[in-house]
């Protein structure tokens, strides 16, 4: 039987359980104890849209090299869910391991001779050691963490330390959890040859890092950016962003003297109302935001058009999930790229930011408010379920105390007083951005915000020329936006005329794929676009490469379409690698996709200019 | 509509309010509505009420959705900001704006289509939140800008201009608001300025959501024989039940009221509304009884008007709490909080991140 050798700090564990049985605590415990051992680690949660009783999986990738995407392989499966046994067993890579609850016989497990099967009577042990049905179920899941601790050689003291932090207010839970850990740990030590070749050895590669999910990081960004009005309608997978924001505000935004809350947190009746509230609050001078997902974006369309045309700031976090329609609410995709870029009827274009990880969620939240207020327009932050809800290892977040919010061109009382007349939509500075005033400041600053046709002076109009002046100025403002949005991240170390172009959460899988390809003699460059409108470096990168792989997580190549619409790139140079299963994209998917393209096989790879020039028929 | 602007000449003898402003200072752009439109009378009543209440024009925020009624926010208080938003969604704009600055006076003007059809949900939820605003429905039972379709307030049996009869029962905003727990519910008629102006004044002073449904005939599409929202029909069937006299805090109650006829309701700022009951059986502070009476009169085709329900404890301690009281926001507007009171700074961040290490 083949066995895995020398896989210290480099393997993937997958844990199959039933949702609502406390497995999340066990999984977090395992991941965090690996993180605290100084080893880069990633956790991905594949959960059902359900409260209790359906299959759920958790994948932990341990990577001494710091690769934080899915690799595509499973080295150790913990199969705790009878309902999914057969498919879980199939998924284990050859030479891998399978841990299962041997309280009941599982003949299906014997079907594979190329993996090592380790049975432990978890349910029986917990039924004997604990009282109460619920406790027994919960402890059974903690118990497998004990088995893994022995198999992987995890430090029990570190586990105890984490439990003590988690249950600081309920110390009795530390002991009961440690008892369950001990049951599993001792059983494994007595019955299996511990540790396995897949094991943990202390390293020092996580210093200066934290484990955080993107929604929490985005919420922190909103707190630090000074957002005061948050309105939303609950929708997976965005809800945890709002929950986190409220939690941070409850702890950090209470007036110590009066107990008053320096924020308004409004659960709206639907997404239409949520974005309406954000627009109303922003129009009235607050930093305001909402968080939603695809269905919410669909509902917000009309209001987004209003905010674009009436030039009202707004910040919208779209934590993308699988569409179309309700789709798969607890699975990840990047399928709102087009819907956000051109949301609403009429000629509209919206600023979009594409964070790749929680660290960027934090910083881009602040940037989103600055851009929205500077440019007086909605800014959408397109995160996704993978970034938003999974725990990622990222560099410790930093805050610059010198930061002051860019509130944009808002006239104060004294400035309005000096004006002969205030004109809301006039381009005084030549950058396409007019001046705005807030209600309650000065009667001379009063104007009428409207979504109906208006002149640059702010009056209602049905006059073609007056209408067009405003519409054309909005194009000028878009050009200004191009200079202000975050630039693309470009890695040209591949030294090749082949490039990968991507956005958001594909990043870590792409970087690992590049390393794998390089080891196989295929060098590729990489550009990660971080905003729409595309910064000028995007056009340059596209022009400088002969062949471009556009990696994205949707079926219809939305990002590729956006590139062809908004840049001069030849369509024929673009190859799509589309991952839309709903699971996070893996490095192996990208490696295989690139190698499958005849033109990039190392042995056949031509030098620059070796191919005949391509017809530019695909240019838009 | 007229396109001749009135000259901006001010006669020195024109009466001035406490701020030294004349009525003209509360006017807005010229109305573009049809001559004789009920909405223009309501606009005039709003101008009168704002002037009487001596509101600082810049502190008036005018909000609307889409439709004839929603246009009217441009026709009063030109010194106040206006927001003509999207169809049926004015309440959410009002909610956000009010959240940002609780010190301003929010006047929403909507129509029966904007409120009772496309905007029914947002209307209900603004009431549930007890948002501090005056919400005026200019109710004519018909879609004007799209030329005469029935709205959700059209009565059973009413006839459209083209002869079609409506068979669907109407949604009555007054009954709906009472059911949803609104703390101030009034109905009036655009043709009765005597009743309308003090109701607007009281609504402006009320802390919490004040609904004022104003029957406002559409002269172009719904003023014909067979219509139950025409001037003639409304005059015949509207029945003042409670006359509200607004008494500012600094003024004594001087009017004579017969015994048992008047009821004083004190507002949060010390001002009072004297309710004169024209219908002896009516108690405007008893939600259940008021609701039953309004419904009973509607069945016989009569619209009770006046301040039909007021929560005497609305906005005061122990009574129905308005939006900011529920949310526990500070007295100073959220949009004026200094940034350093909002960000925990780098030291704060380091502390927050401890649990993520």
Give a brief description:
The complex is a heterodimer of chains A (620) and B (357). Chain A is an alpha/beta fold.
Largest interface: A-B, 75 and 57 residues
Mean pLDDT of chain A: 93
- Number of DSSP helices of chain A? 19
Give a short account of the largest sheet of chain B.
10 strands, mixed
Task: Return the CATH class of chain B.
Answer: Alpha Beta
Detail the poorly predicted runs of chain B.
none
In spatial order, strands of the major sheet of chain B run 2-1-3-4-8-7-12-9-11-10
Number of domains of chain A: 4
Separate helix tally of chain B: 11
CATH superfamily of chain B: Thiamin diphosphate (ThDP)-binding fold, Pyr/PP domains
**Total beta-strand segments of chain B:** 12
> What percent of residues of chain A adopt helix (DSSP H or I)?
25-40%
The CATH topology of the largest domain in chain A comes to Rossmann fold
First-last Cα distance of chain B: 68 Å
Strand line-up across the major sheet of chain A: 9-8-10-11-13-12-19
How does this model look, in words?
The complex is a heterodimer of chains A (620) and B (357). Chain A is globular. The relative contact order of chain A is 0.09. In chain A, strands 9-8-10-11-13-12-19 form a 7-stranded mixed sheet, with helices on both faces. Chain A has 4 domains: 10-191, 3-Layer(aba) Sandwich (Pyruvate-ferredoxin Oxidoreductase, domain 3); 212-395, Rossmann fold (3-Layer(aba) Sandwich); 413-484, no CATH class; 489-604, 3-Layer(aba) Sandwich (Rossmann fold). Mean pLDDT of chain A is 93; it is low at 603-620. Chain A has 620 residues and is of the alpha/beta class. Helix content of chain A is 37%, strand content 17%. Chain B has 357 residues and is α/β, with parallel strands linked by helices. Chain B has 11 helices and 12 strands. Chain B has a 10-stranded mixed sheet with strand order 2-1-3-4-8-7-12-9-11-10, with helices on both faces. Chain B is globular. The mean pLDDT of chain B is 91. Classes of the chains: A alpha/beta (620), B alpha/beta (357).
